[in-house]
Structure formats: C-alpha cells, structure tokens
Amino acid sequence: MTEGPVAAPPAAGWRRWVVVALLFCAIVINYVDRQTYGLLKAPISHDLRWTNTDFANVHLCFQAAYAVSYLAWGRLADRLGARLGLAVAFGVWSVAQFATSGARQIGQFMLGRAALGMGEAGAFPGAVKAVVEWFPQKERALANGVFNAGANVGAIITPLAVPAITLAWGWPAAFMATGLVGLVWLPIWLWLYRRPREHAKVSAAELAYIEQDPADRPVRLGWGAVLRRRQTWVYALGKLITDPIFGMYLVWLPDFLGKRYGLDLKTFGPPLIAIYLLSDLGSVGGGWLSSHFLKRGWSVNRARKVTMLICALCATPVALAPSVGSLWGAVVIIGLAAAAHQGFSATLYALPGDLLPRAGVGSVLGIGGMLGAIGGMAMSRYTGWTLDHARGYGPVFAVASSAYLCALAVIHLLSPRLEPVAAEPKG
User: Fold this and answer.
1) pLDDT value for 152
2) 233: confidence class by pLDDT, cuts 50, 70, 90
3) Which of 29, 200, 231, 398 is the most exposed place for a label (fewest CB within 10 A)?
4) In sequence order, what are the residues at sequence separation of 6 or more whose Cβ sits closer than 8 angstroms to the Cβ of residue 312?
C-alpha cells in the first residue's frame, strides 16, 4: 500500500468507474426481477384467487430464502472474490425468474420466489466487495451510492416494461422476459472484471490511488470472531431496522397507489417512476455527501453519522402519506422518504469497509443482509395482516417514518466513535 493521501488520478484513471457501471447494471436487473412480482399483484391475485395474506406468504418465501442465503453469500464473497461470487449469484437468480413464468399454484410460486431469493442474496455482498477491492475509503460511499442507484433505475424500468409485456402477452411472459435479460450481463462481467492488480489496463497512478489506505491489520476472521465484534452489529442492526422499509415500498407501493388513488396496471407507472427518480437522487447524493465530508477533513464518524442523520430526518414525513388527498403530494412525500432510504443505505454500506479488514467485509455484509431480510419478512407479514384486518396503510407508513432515526440511535449507541477493529495477532 502507498502511504499518505493520493490525489485522484487524471483522466486516464477511470477503470474503477467501469466496475461501478457494471455493478450498477447488475443491481438494475436485480431490482427489475425483484419488483416484477409486486407489480403483478393484481392480475396474479385475480387469476389465482389470492388474498393479501397469500400474496404476503409468497413474498415471505423470497425473503426467507434471501435471509438464509445472504449469510452464505457474504462468506462466499470473501472466499471466491467479487468476480466469481457475483457471477454465480446472477446466474441463479436469472434462471429462477425465468422458471417462475411457469408457476400456476401458490406452492410453485413459493419455490420460484425462494430460488430467486437464493440468487439475489449474492448481489450486494459481491457488489460491495468489488467496491472495497477497487476504491479507497474516501470514495467508497460515493461508489456505493452510484451502484445502489441501480435499485431505483430498476424500479423505474419495471413499471414501464412489465405492464406493457403483461398487457400484450400476459403476466407469465413478464417473468420470462425479465429473467432472460439477466443472462446478457453475465458474460460481460466475467470478461471485464478483475481485481485492480490483476487488471492489465489499470494505470500505475490509478492503482496507487486505489491502494492509498493503510494496509489491513492482521485479525482473526472466523465466524466466532466476526460475531463477537461490535463493529459487525453496527452494520447488521442498521440493516435489520432499515432494509424492510424499502422492501415494503418495492412490493406494496403499487397496491397502495391502487387502493388510495384508484390507479391500476395502466396508470401507476408515472407515479412509481417519479418516486424512484427521487430515490436515485438520494442514493447518489447520500453517497456523495458522506464522501464530500471526508474529503473536507471530517472524521469517518462525523461524516457518516451526519449524513445518516440528514437522511433519517428526511424520511419522517412519510407517516403522512396515507392521509394526503393529492396523488402527487403523496408521491413527493414517499419519493423523499425513498431517497432518504437510499442515501442512508449508501452510507451504511460503507461501514463494513470503514470498520473491518477487507477479508471480513463479505461475512459482515452477509450477517447484515440476513438480518435485513428477516426484518423484511416481519414487515411483509405485518403489512399483509394490517390490510386484511382493514387497518389500512397508516400503521405501515408510521413504522417507515421512524425506522431510520431508530437505526441511527442503535448505531451510535454501539459505536459512539465508529472505531475500526483493533489489531490482534492471527490465530
């Protein structure tokens, strides 16, 4: 590793951003596949005579598989590296999405969505692992924010493409088409991605910039050691509290817009697109803000927590969304909250790299992702139960409004200074 800060290289030093572009495309496809089910709630429920609880139970299978598999993928990202780990995950979830097109019974949907969850769980551990491999600490939050913006672009593309496919050829064709698209990305990733020192076209200046941070401290990285680290739970509990909120938006927003404002498959596209465009601004803006503070000389603790506080405060008005009479008024409030989530999330993704050595980042991401998915399962069950008992979306959005302040409070209590893992001998 080089010593001391290294200025960003000139125009030739852009290879690391190619990696981010590839990751961005991967997350776009990930969220198209994930959101397809939520957008098709009405036609699937009508054809198969499902209740809200049936719909929630199928989604629960996705989340349960996602939770268990996320833990394994986190460890695999450390062992296999970003290139192979992300490639395997991508192949699994694309095939699962394609296979779901043949489902006609609730059990078949459960199996298809569970397989999708198994594969999609590998996306973020692999992506964040790649960012840690390719970016210095001061740029990681921005890089995370850029690729994480793919979630919102995917959420924008889905209400444009899926309804059109469904209206033309039926809802099974939507699963088939979105699954096939994913297989285009896979060979491109395998062809282009290498670690910086293995990449023939990375300049010496860019390599020095990437490797400017101090070398990792020697630490024990077995499961027991990872679980004992307070730094692990700073990230993992943040995910447990906040991940379920954006998952709720992805799956239940079309239903909310339909019930509250009378929208349907033909009309809820523009409001959803507006919400996720705002989310994109939040993802990149939140990542940029944290990195900007670091470049101004702020401590990691101050830069990360101030950014998360700003995002948490921006999420609080979403409690008012169900009571807003205007569709576009609700869109603005929900869009602000979704942007706040993505800014918070981009900053949260930087914490494992801030607090732990590179060799343990994937494992910590796996633990956090698993807990986030477990929280999502609880949120999905709660939402389905609330709607089936005629309580409406008010309680759901009330939970969404307070989650981020609660998460930040937990993070601060666990780590008042965001101190990294202390050095200890290997063993």
Assistant:
1) 76
2) very high
3) 200
4) 340, 344, 404, 405, 407, 408
CA–CA gap between residue 39 and residue 24 (Å, rounded): 22
Report how far residue 320's alpha carbon sits from residue 72's, in angstroms, rounded to the nearest whole number. Answer: 38
Q: How far apart are CA 410 and CA 119, in angstroms?
A: 30
Phi, psi of 136 (to 5 degrees): -70, 165
The distance of Cα 16 from the centroid of its chain, to the nearest Å, equals 20
C-beta neighbour count of 344 within 10 angstroms: 29
Question: Which of these, 175, 79, 181, lies nearest to 122 by C-alpha position?
Answer: 79
Give residues with Cβ within 8 angstroms of 386, minimum separation 6: 392, 393, 395, 396
| Cβ–Cβ < 8 Å for 360, 159 | no
Instruction: State how far the Cα of 162 lies from the Cα of 48, in Å rounded to an integer.
Output: 19
Q: What is the pLDDT of residues 341-393, one digit of tens each?
A: 999 998 998 898 888 876 677 788 888 888 998 898 889 889 988 988 878 89
Q: DSSP for 346-369? A: HHHHHHHHHHS-HHHHHHHHHHHH
Q: What stretch of H or E contains 220?
A: none
pTM metric for this prediction: 0.74
pLDDT (mean) for 311-339: 96
Amino acid found at 104:
R
Closest to 383 measured CA to CA, from 30, 32, 38, 34: 38
Do 125 and 95 contact (CB within 8 A), yes or no? no
| Token output for 147 | 């690729």
Q: How far apart are CA 152 and CA 158, in angstroms?
A: 10
Are residues 397 and 252 in contact, defined by beta-carbon separation less than 8 angstroms? Answer: no
Q: What six digits make up the tokens of 4? A: 């001391």
DSSP states along 271-337? HHHHHHHHHHHHHHHHHHHHHHHHHTT--HHHHHHHHHHHHHHHHGGGGGGGG-SSHHHHHHHHHHH
CA distance 133 to 363: 15
State the Cα–Cα distance between residues 106 and 340, nearest whole angstrom. Answer: 35
